[in-house]
């Protein structure tokens, strides 16, 4: 069903396939907590992980997931590869395909992943690009499933930089699972690509829309935020902070959302900026569950797509 497939956005997968990945992740997590950590489905196979950007959760969770599946893990940045000396992405993809069974990369430009996938003969996984963060959205969905007891019919508000990669992937997975995704942020950062979700939304009953009003937080199952200045946008920091200051998630915002609302963040968090300490450390925060679930969802993806 999944063998040999790339995971670049999750738009490549049908709604039922996304559910199947989440069910697999849930099973891996149950066995993990029962003491069955090592499940050598891909014993002796090799995963190459390339990181153009710094990483904590993605690097460690994906490496650990591959190891737990019995795989050899090679982690490198472009400067440790000939990519850093001018070798082309196609040549790198062709070469690594002869050594590895799966290539995963965290990149500045999504086009780099698309080029890797075009020329590689093995699956290519998106570990984060400027446009999408699909493995994060799988962990988010697993977390909400655990906390809310259901996968469909959820209402999730993403607050702040609604144009970023995490918001994009939340909208994608929400359209696959029949959620109402409210993208709450300043109009200057609104997306112009939501029409691509229409087909899935038509199948699942999902609704994804943008608003600049915090009043739209009322009644949601979760309030999600992310850093105001993502990697690669440092030159815009001052302007972004000015635009987004009214969208800080604090106690008043969580009160507006209601007592049923969980707090979510993909981490790392800039405390005092997009979220206050009392919220991220509060009883409704599920950020550490999200972080753990990066391991189990990465394990499901690697188990499913590795040939």
UniProtKB/TrEMBL annotation:
Carbamoyl phosphate binds at residues 55-58, 82, 106, 133-136, 266-267, 294. The keyword Transferase applies. It catalyses: carbamoyl phosphate + L-ornithine = L-citrulline + phosphate + H(+). L-ornithine binds at residues 165, 226, 230-231. It is found in: Cytoplasm. Residues 5-146 form the Aspartate/ornithine carbamoyltransferase carbamoyl-P binding domain. Its main location: cytoplasm. InterPro entries: Asp/Orn_carbamoyltranf_P-bd, Asp/Orn_carbamoylTrfase, Asp/Orn_carbamoylTrfase_sf, Asp_carbamoyltransf_Asp/Orn-bd, Orn/put_carbamltrans, OTCase_ArgI. GO terms for molecular function: amino acid binding; ornithine carbamoyltransferase activity. Keywords: Cytoplasm, Transferase. Gene3D superfamilies: Aspartate/ornithine carbamoyltransferase (3.40.50.1370). GO terms for biological process: citrulline biosynthetic process; L-arginine biosynthetic process via ornithine. Residues 152-304 form the Aspartate/ornithine carbamoyltransferase Asp/Orn-binding domain. GO terms for cellular component: cytoplasm. Its EC number is 2.1.3.3. Belongs to the aspartate/ornithine carbamoyltransferase superfamily. OTCase family. PANTHER family: ORNITHINE CARBAMOYLTRANSFERASE, MITOCHONDRIAL (PTHR45753), ORNITHINE TRANSCARBAMYLASE, MITOCHONDRIAL (PTHR45753:SF3). NCBIfam families: orni_carb_tr, PRK00779.1. This is Ornithine carbamoyltransferase. It comes from Thermoproteus uzoniensis (strain 768-20). The lineage of its organism: Archaea, Thermoproteota, Thermoprotei, Thermoproteales, Thermoproteaceae.
